[in-house]
Amino acid sequence: MKKIFALFFILFASQYFAQDITNNPFGKGIINVISKDSSWSSKVAFRFQTRFDGTYNFADSTYTDRAYVRRARIKGNGYAFSPRLKYKFEYDVHNGFVLDAVIKWNFVGNWSVWFGQTKLPGNIERVFSSQKLQLVDRSLLNSKFTLDRDAGGQLRHHFTIGKNFLVREIFAFSQGEGLNRKSQSIGHGYTGRIELLPFGKFNKKGDYFAADLKREKTPKLMLSATYDYNQKAERLRGQMGDYLSDGLENSDLLQPSSFRDLESIFIDAHFKLRGFSFFGEYVNKRTADGSPLVSITEEDGTVVNQYYYTGSAFNLQMGYLMKNNWEVAGRFTQVTPEAITLYNNINQYTLGFSRYVVGHNLKVQGDVSLSQEATKDNVVLFRLQTEFNF
């Protein structure tokens, strides 16, 4: 019913605001209106990604593939009363749940407060929208260690040193359990991030999307660091992953002392110049108060072991955008979980291409990856994806 309602809404909006659609190119939204007195604005858009995956296993020479919808979302933003009071929402039509629902209030000068559910200020690759990626999808560093989205509040501030040196600070207080958590949490998440831009702002927010589509004429660089403390994490990856209670016949066996506090440190850099782009990321995640191994004894004497996903990883990615809007990009990712967790080390090498028809709003991307995972056979993954953002 949720998906049917969402599709009905899109069709209704398409008819009602037909005059806006004919005038708006890709990325301008199905609905894009401002009130006559400029007291409010609203933009509503729809985007989807279609994908093909092919997988080849070297050991037994087997090949499998699939075609599917990777993402389909309704998203919107605008302001109420004044441009200083903004809002953003995003709904996952494909899976049927809310991603973003957040209010952003610029209450004085360079200070803003956000309240609601949205992305935490984690690694740079996660801050990039999935619409605005340089390769078909994010790296293994992100899928294993990202902070993802959470509900709570964020305090944001920025200032400039001299003429160009921009500094941005972000502090977040969140529930610590990830998306759409309705029950009470036994702990909370605390996140701080600082971003340094020594050469000033990127052109048109280019620091928050991959590929140098704006073809920066002078060097642009952002150096960033994030610290996150997730108190009494109930999920094995913090805001993501399975719950510690999964696999237990009786979740009441879990005591507050069973849960661990997770500490994460992210360091990243992002650079662009004349079509060339590069970003690198490093993450280290540890349990702050004991081993990542949690052993629970069931009432029948069975011992169930659960492991928090801790360890480190780094990711290096670069690309070059040619004048005809074709881009070639490459990535290397290394994931090294702590030995006690029994998770495998992984190296992945990726080479990809993109054809940007209307920037990140209308594009075709493909890539091929070689994954080398300890104790497992080498695998080659072929992917082709289209992106439409109305």
CATH class: Mainly Beta
Distance between the termini: 23 Å
**Number of domain modules:** 1
Look at the helices and sheets and give the structural class: mainly beta
Which runs of at least 5 residues are low in confidence (pLDDT < 50)? 14-22
Q: How confident is the prediction overall: mean pLDDT?
A: 91
Total count of helical runs of at least 4 residues: 4
CATH architecture: Beta Barrel
Largest sheet: 16 strands, antiparallel, barrel
Total beta-strand segments: 19
Topology:
Blueprint (H helix, E strand, L loop, with lengths): L1 H15 L1 H6 L7 E4 L5 E18 L4 E19 L1 E11 L4 E12 L2 E9 L4 H4 L12 H6 L3 E13 L3 E10 L14 E9 L22 E14 L26 E14 L2 E12 L5 E5 L5 E5 L3 E11 L4 E12 L8 E13 L3 E12 L5 E11 L1
Antiparallel strand pairs: 1-2, 2-3, 2-19, 3-4, 4-5, 5-6, 6-7, 7-8, 8-9, 9-10, 10-11, 11-12, 12-15, 13-14, 15-16, 16-17, 17-18, 18-19
Structure description:
This protein has 390 residues and is mainly beta. The chain has one domain (2-389): Porin (Beta Barrel). It is built from four helices and 19 strands. It has helices spanning 2-16, 18-23, 124-127, 140-145; strands at 31-34, 40-57, 62-80, 82-92, 97-108, 111-119, 149-161, 165-174, 189-197, 220-233, 260-273, 276-287, 293-297, 303-307, 311-321, 326-337, 346-358, 362-373, 379-389. The chain has a 16-stranded antiparallel barrel with strand order 2-3-4-5-6-7-8-9-10-11-12-15-16-17-18-19. A two-stranded antiparallel sheet has the order 13-14. A hairpin with a 5-residue loop joins strand 1 and strand 2 (40-57). It is globular, with a radius of gyration of 22 Å. The two termini are 23 Å apart.
